[in-house]
Every structure is written in C-alpha cells, then in structure tokens.
Amino acid sequence: MTFILDYYNYWIVIFLMMAGFYTVISANNLVKKIVGLNIFQTSVFMLYISMGKVEGGTAPIVVEGVTQYSNPLPHVLILTAIVVGVATTAVGLSLVVRIKKAYGTVEENEFDNKDDAI
Amino acid sequence: MPEIIDLVLLAMLALTALRVIFLKDLFAVVMLFGIYSFLSALIFINLDAVDVAFTEAAVGAGISTVLMLGTLALTGRTEKRSKHSNVVPLLVVTVTGAALIYGTLDMPPFGDPDNPIHQHVAPRYIEESPKEVGLPNMVTSVLASYRGFDTLGETVVVFAAAIGVLSLLGVARREKNGSPESGLTQHKVLHVVAKLIIPLIILFALYVQFHGDFGPGGGFQAGVIAAAAFILYALVFGLPLAFAVVAPKFLQILASIGVLLYASVGLFSMYKGGQFLDYNTLAADPLAGQHYGIIIIELGVGITVFAVMLSIFYAFGSQAERSNIQ
C-alpha cells in the first residue's frame, strides 16, 4: 500500500500526460488538439507540484509555530507557467481561427489538396 | 486524510481526461476541460500550492474556457470522424507511458522530506527569505525578488502573446453600427446578478493584488481576476458597451505600461547604484526597499496581465460577433 501511495501521483501524472499526448496525435479537430495540449501541460504542472510536497508540511507562507513547509520553488515556476500557458494557448486558438478562415475547416483530414486552392 | 483526498481527486482527474479523448461534441469537451482545471486547482491546494491553485482556478477554469468557447463559436462544435485508424497513436502512447512509468520507479517516494529536491536551495529560501525580503509568503519573495528578472521575462512573454493574437485576429475596433443589443438582453436576472457581482470581483482582484505579499495571490492572479470581471460584463451586456467602458486602444497602452513599469524599477535600482532589479537600494532600509520594489513590480505584472487577457478576449469576441453579422 505504501508502495502505491509513494508513486500514485506520478502514475496519474503519466496517465494524464499520455491522455493529452494521445488527443494531440489522434484528434481530427484542431480545437480538440489544443485541449489535449492543455491536458498535457497541466499534467506537467501536477508533476512539479507533487515533487514539491512535503509530508506533514504546510503551504509556504510563514506562520508562527510551523517549521515544516512545502517546497516553494516548484510553486513559483508553475504559477508563471500557467499564465504564460494561457497566453500561448490564446495564440494557438487564434491560429485555429485563421485556419478556419483560410481553409473553411478545422478538421485535419480535410486540409488535403486544399493548399493549391489558396 | 490528505492522502485519501489526493487519491480521489486524482482519480476524478484521470476519468475527466479519459472522457475528453472519446467525446466528439466539442462543447462538452471544453466544459470537461473547465472541470479538469477546477479539479487540478483542488489538487494543488491539497498539495500545499495555494498560489498555484489560485492561478489555475482563475486562468484554467475561467479564461481558457471562455477563449475556447469563443473559438468554437467560429469553428463549429462537433468533431468529424477521422478515417485513419487509431492503432498507431495508441501504440505510441502505450509504449511511451510504459517507459515513463518504469522511469518513475527510480523517483524518490512522494512527500518524503529527505528527497533531493528539498535539500539544496529550498531550505535557503525557506529560512532566509522572511529575513532578507521580509515577506511571509515565500512564493511571492522568490517570484518577485530572487527571481525578479525571470518574472520580467515571463511578463514580456505574456505581452508578446497579446501582440501575436492581435496580429493574427486583428485589433478589436469600436464599430459605429455595432448593435448594443448583442449581449444577453433577454435575461434580466443575469443583468441584475452581474451588476451585483462585478464590483465584488474587482474589489477581490484589488485585495489579491495588494495582499499577495502576505497571503496567497499577487499580480498574475489579480490581473486575471480583474479581467474576468470585465469579460463577464462583456458577455452579459455585449461587446459595444464593454468597449465603451474599457476601449481596446486603451488596453494596448495599458499592457505596455505594465511591462515598462516593471522594467523601470530595474533601471531605477541601477540608477541608485545597485544591480538590475536589486530592490535593496530603493530605500534607506533594505527591507523597506524590498517591499516598495515588490509592490511596484507586482502592480506592473497585474496591469499587463489584466490588459493582455482582456484584449485577447476582445479579439476573439469581436471575431465571433463579426461572423454572426455576416
């Protein structure tokens, strides 16, 4: 049981990573691909935050009488990564909107032979 | 007890991700993604990352979902079936996943205080940052002071993303003939509730902005929350009215003001004889200098993030509105 508890977080992270990866490579629709990319991204966040957790620790804000804090460094990295992530997602989504305008579709298999028409 | 919460929430997260793969209705996919973000925020709280949870709840569940819905309005809400088989992707994913799981067996066990990650720089920040920077929130100390240069870079990335979106989708303009009835005009309840909630959201954003040194929060979260208030206004009352409140042009200026404010703190500390972003030189007392520096750069971050998020929403929203008129 302790063996499972020791690695459970990492296994779920890998499952989520693979779910996102699978969505990115198998989905037909570009918006869904971006959702998959976001799932992948969140799983990486989860990996970092899981590594920063200390058993019996508390949030890294100084409180009197507490000596054990979780590691603040992964929190800093991930906090900014989330905001940068949404900004880049927005760029991706606006590319999807432009693709829809140029090609009339956002389905991957319908792009074939449409390059010549433009 | 926290272990059980962790087990249950992570299992729910995995189920949500699994459902996203097989759904063809993209509206449902985006809604599930919002749920996914909320669940991740809960897990972050359980793992002691309160600042991260805050950001994830505001950004992932709030702004991302709205932007994805805006895209769906333009691209259609169902995915077509693809002809090629899914065997190869499944095989790739299974092999990669198995290799990674084999790799985790070498990881140190979850939550052990003796893990390498907790041995080297982290104790230094945990013990010294309250004395050197004078803030109880270590995440803010590291983010705004020790790694201030890095955060400046991230603020610039956010700014650059706004330039990218605006150059791809075009700048939202105040249209003379835009109908002010484009919001949810029929829903009186929404109007009343929105008018009640919006001031509270803005007030909360200001609290998060200025209390971020002491509790969870800071410029990134505050900027997103403030943007959410105006996005709610635009959704309920329509874009033309929102443009009258905060003009798109004004937001572009605001976004650059935030970045410049941040960078000018760095230049000012050089002028005072220190290094770039060395807040100790800002005042006679180093601790007071740190405090001034952090408040100003957090304000810069908040202003930029607010302006960028809102102008990205404007760009998507005006695209959707234009295509509806045609």
General description of the model:
The complex is a heterodimer of chains A (118) and B (326). Chain A has helices at residues 2-26, 30-52, 72-103. In chain A, α1 packs antiparallel against α2 (30-52) and α2 (30-52) runs antiparallel to α3 (72-103). Chain A contains 3 helices and no strands. Chain B folds into 2 domains: 1-108, Up-down Bundle (Four Helix Bundle (Hemerythrin (Met), subunit A)); 139-326, no CATH class. In chain B, α6 (138-146) crosses α7 and α6 packs across α12 (286-325). Chain B contains 12 helices and no strands. In chain B, 74% of the residues lie in helices and 0% in strands. At the A-B interface, α1, α2 and α3 of A face α1, α2, α3, α4 and α5 of B.
Distance N to C terminus of chain B: 56 Å
Write down how many β-strands of chain A occur, each being a DSSP E stretch of 2 or more residues. Answer: 0
| Binned strand content of chain A | under 5%
Number of domains of chain A: 1
Runs of chain A in which pLDDT lies below 50 for 5 or more consecutive residues are none
Helix proportion of residues of chain B, in percent?
A: over 70%
- Tell me which CATH architecture of chain A applies here: Orthogonal Bundle
N to C succession of SSEs of chain A = HHH
Structural class of chain B: mainly alpha
How is the main sheet of chain B built?
Answer: none
CATH topology of chain A: Helix Hairpins
CATH class of chain A: Mainly Alpha
Q: Give the N-to-C terminal Cα separation of chain A.
A: 60 Å
Report the β-strand fraction of chain B as a percent range: under 5%
| 3D shape of chain B | globular
Estimated radius of gyration of chain A: 20 Å
Q: Outline of this structure?
A:
The complex is a heterodimer of chains A (118) and B (326). Chain A contains three helices and no strands.
List keywords for this structure.
heterodimer; A: mainly alpha; Helix Hairpins; 3 helices; B: 326 residues; mainly alpha; 2 domains; 12 helices; 74% helix; globular
